[in-house]
TrEMBL record:
Residues 78-160 form the Mga helix-turn-helix domain. The keyword Transferase does not apply. The keyword ATP-binding does not apply. This is Helix-turn-helix domain-containing protein. Pfam families: Mga.
Length: 499
């Protein structure tokens, strides 16, 4: 990523990603060491980030506490990357090449309004970027090619996915009509797609049409093959696709359906042999059964079919394109990281059973691991509820020097907000008359919630709150509960000994 972004942008986005991994405040000195810059530069970066990326993320700064991402606003990092894509000359060049693959250096220097030296410096950086993805940036004319034309198409699909997401539509094609075509074709072929997958398939369809109109096709041998069931299914949509293309400057090639079938629905073709399909299908089936048994939670057939279909698609894709799809932003990385923090047993279980169906290079545990976790959590009905129920119930004791009724009021408030996570009691004795020996039982609780410091009690499990829980109190209590649950999940043996 570094070679495609200017140094300032790269430093800022790395700083944001660093903060995104932290649960709370970060010391300013540590932040400057991570960013490799001075305090003055870092503070300037924070001003820039809040001003130009502030619609999506916001960094708080305190002289005493340091810096942190605002928890209420910092959940749209992907949108920041979209903005970076649109501001980058390198990616402007990449996108424009999809439509203008016959142009020379002079054309692009004028089109991008840069000097010749800057243009070739950019080209040199892009050549290395493409090489690491098995692609090549040709110079006469400037265009992207690869050993398999579909490699380039998948690259562009990922580009548009990261640069535009699902809320923008950067093409001349009618979005609704394009989406309807993808939905109709996938339904006819019994391929289940959610909204995001439909959008990504639409990107791939339009990229394929554009590449064909630039004269960049799959091998002639593909066009010479006898039409199969998938081809014939797509042919039925010919009038619809012809009408769709007629509204643009593109033309519909004679055998467009063969290009589309072997690109968009590549999972039906890219297998070494029929036996491999059966073998991998069986391995994925065993993987899901093992995970289901390990966490003692059933997987219904409909959910299982969707998960298996997607994992088979990834495997087929990896058969002919053994590279990571992610360009700048992995939208599932943070998701998988949170799964690891919240449900480490589940994370370790999934990763362990994935190794049993591994191939080299490591598709499941390296290239697609984040995707697998997102897929399981999304498609496995009510799995999050089950995993939450497996987490430790945090033991809380409420202590109040305003009397038993006040303690019970705080208890009710805690139960109303955190009932599924906790078991809560109140301290029955008078706090004013209690002796130090009376407070010894507090040690056995995970959290002691008190409206005032308790004389002679200074253990780390105490949390001082207001007489009525404030917003800050609620946030601190939730963070305390989550921290205890995480520690219990990572060190279950200690919890067993303690209980």
């Amino acid at each position: 990523m570094e070679q495609l972004l200017n140094s300032s942008t790269y430093r800022r986005i790395q700083f944001v990603e660093f903060l995104d991994q932290l649960p709370s405040w970060c010391d300013l000195k540590e932040a400057t060491q991570t960013s490799g810059c001075s305090v003055k530069t870092l503070l300037s970066d924070i001003v820039f980030i809040n001003e130009f990326w502030g619609d999506y993320i916001y960094i708080e700064y305190s002289k005493f506490q340091g810096v942190r991402l605002n928890n209420l606003t910092s959940n749209k990092l992907g949108n920041v990357y979209c903005q970076i894509y649109h501001e980058s000359l390198e990616f402007q060049f990449i996108e424009k090449m999809l439509y203008e693959s016959h142009q020379d250096a002079e054309y692009w220097i004028n089109e991008l309004f840069i000097s010749e030296a800057s243009f070739y410096r950019m080209v040199n950086g892009l050549e290395d970027f493409f090489k690491r993805r098995g692609l090549k940036l040709e110079r006469s004319p400037f265009r992207i090619t690869g050993p398999d034309e579909r490699w380039v198409r998948f690259f562009y699909q990922q580009y548009f996915t990261e640069a535009y997401g699902v809320n923008q539509w950067p093409f001349a094609f009618d979005q609704k009509e394009t989406t309807c075509f993808i939905m109709r074709a996938s339904t006819d072929l019994d391929v289940t797609l959610d909204d995001r997958e439909i959008q990504e398939a639409a990107y791939l369809f339009i990229v394929t049409l554009n590449r064909m109109n630039q004269g960049l096709y799959l091998p002639e041998s593909v066009h010479a093959e006898i039409d199969d069931t998938i081809d014939r299914t797509l042919i039925l949509s010919h009038p619809f696709v012809e009408q769709l293309v007629a509204k643009t400057d593109l033309k519909l090639p004679k055998k467009w359906y063969k290009e589309v079938s072997r690109t968009i629905f590549h999972e039906f073709y890219n297998w070494e042999n029929p036996e491999q399909v059966v073998q991998i299908n069986s391995k994925i089936d065993i993987f899901l059964s093992n995970v289901s048994q390990a966490i003692e939670y059933p997987l219904n057939q409909e959910d299982k079919q969707k998960i298996m279909q997607k994992m088979l698609t990834w495997f087929a894709e990896h058969n002919f394109y053994p590279y990571r799809q992610v360009l700048l932003f992995d939208k599932h990385q943070k998701f998988a990281r949170e799964i690891q923090l919240l449900y480490p047993f589940f994370f370790d279980t999934v990763e362990s059973y994935l190794k049993a169906i591994e191939k080299t290079p490591k598709l499941w545990t390296e290239i697609r691991l984040n995707n697998v976790f997102f897929l399981l959590m999304k498609e496995w009905s009510h799995l999050p509820i089950h995993l939450e129920n497996l987490r430790k119930k945090v033991m809380i004791l409420v202590v109040s020097d305003l009397g038993q009724k006040h303690a019970e009021m705080l208890q009710d408030f805690v139960i109303a907000n955190y009932n599924e996570r906790i078991l809560v009691h109140t301290f029955k004795k008078s706090v004013i008359l209690a002796e130090p020996v009376d407070f010894e039982e507090l040690i056995k609780y995970d959290i002691v919630l008190s409206n005032n410091p308790i004389k002679g009690y200074a253990h780390e499990n105490i949390l001082i709150v207001n007489n009525f829980l404030s917003a800050s109190d609620r946030e601190n209590l939730l963070n305390f509960i989550v921290m205890i649950q995480k520690n219990a999940a990572f060190h279950p043996s200690q919890e067993t000994k303690r209980s």
